[in-house]
Design goal:
Order of helices and strands: HHEEHHHHHHHEHHEHEEHE
CATH architecture of one domain: Roll
Radius of gyration: 28 Å
CATH topology of one domain: Chitinase A, domain 3
Strand content: 5-15%
Number of strands: 7
Largest sheet: 4 strands, antiparallel
Mean pLDDT: 90
Oligomer: single chain
CATH class of one domain: Alpha Beta
Low-confidence stretches: 1-26
């Protein structure tokens, strides 16, 4: 009798183990992997498959840069993980926006959605010039036209929700005048210009050490040639002359540069490239236009900023309400 019990017990253990193996095999099929949960928003699952659906273009770029065996390259896989996290962040926002739009009954009708999607699709085609270039762009991105339409749809819903959320945002005369006074350089009679030089290094510690030497009286150009790490070092860090609102330069860099007093050198400024010491070699400032002349422009600019602030606040509130959970290991 005891032998029979042992046989039954052994059979049950074998059956249980086999069932577990079976589950793992299902999990490891492409279909099972695609269904793997990577996040939850308002109790709605975001799956690995949704992430993967947006990665063909990224993978093509990685293959071009690192070769067919890009998965064996650490830098390539780090970049892929970064891109996956960006896609996930976008999908989380889309889920939050869709949930709130449905809750507030702001999702456009199918007819309006399709009309706006087709309108934006037409604008994309026009921007690319020819149908051939449009199709080439789709191929390069690794998406079909239907997939592109699907990506446009959330933005249409977002526009409807954002319009409703920010419709009561206003700009007072006092607000407009205060903004004008704080940003006179934006409304000069001619574009203000600034002649810049910089020293770019990898770490903040290096930048601080160089700044101390500059403050002690050492020559900027000499130190740029000695310590600089980019292509400007040979020319003593010379960058040239730019308008205050120049968009060809890094935005963080320019925002810091225009605040440097004439003839002075900034404290270390961190950008995507490293740490900069920025010298204002010379600048040309023109007088500002009268407030009355630019009032409408100021109000338009400030209204857009205030609406963006209101939208950001709303999204922050909704994100908290969404009780977002992420499972990064499943990415």
């Amino acid at each position: 009798m005891k032998n029979v019990k042992k046989i039954i017990s052994a059979a049950l253990i074998t059956l249980f183990a086999t069932s577990l193996i079976g589950c793992n095999m299902i999990e490891k099929t492409p279909e099972g992997i695609a269904k793997t949960e990577v996040a939850k928003v308002f109790d709605t699952k975001i799956t690995k498959g949704q992430i993967e659906a947006q990665l063909p273009g990224v993978i093509k770029q990685l293959q071009t840069q690192y070769g067919a065996n890009y998965t064996t390259n650490t830098d390539a896989m780090t970049e892929l993980t970064t891109q996956k996290q960006k896609v996930l962040a976008g999908l989380i926002n889309e889920e939050i926006i869709t949930y709130k739009a449905k809750e507030l009954k702001l999702v456009p009708s199918d007819a309006k959605l399709n009309a706006e999607i087709n309108k934006q699709l037409l604008e994309i085609k026009k921007s690319l010039g020819t149908d051939a270039k449009y199709k080439a762009a789709l191929t390069q991105a690794g998406v079909t036209e239907e997939a592109l339409k699907a990506r446009i749809k959330p933005s249409v819903i977002q526009d409807a929700l954002k319009t409703e959320t920010t419709k009561n945002v206003k700009v007072t005369d006092a607000d407009a005048k205060a903004y004008y006074n704080a940003n006179l350089a934006l409304y000069s009679t001619k574009p203000n210009t600034i002649h810049l030089a910089h020293i770019l290094v990898k770490t903040e510690a290096e930048a601080i050490a160089i700044k101390k030497r500059l403050d002690a009286g050492e020559d900027f150009a000499k130190l740029a040639k000695e310590k600089g790490t980019d292509g400007t070092k040979a020319a003593g860090g010379e960058l040239g002359t730019f308008k205050f609102d120049d968009t060809s330069m890094d935005a963080t860099f320019m925002a810091a540069a225009v605040k440097v007093p004439a003839g002075k050198v900034s404290t270390p400024v961190k950008t995507q490239f490293g740490y900069h010491l920025i010298k204002d070699v010379a600048r040309t400032n023109y007088p500002a236009k009268k407030f009355e002349v630019v009032k409408a422009e100021v109000e338009k600019t400030l209204l857009a900023k205030n609406k963006e602030t209101a939208w950001t606040a709303a999204m922050t509130k909704w994100t908290t309400q969404a009780n977002v959970t992420k499972i990064d290991k499943n990415l």
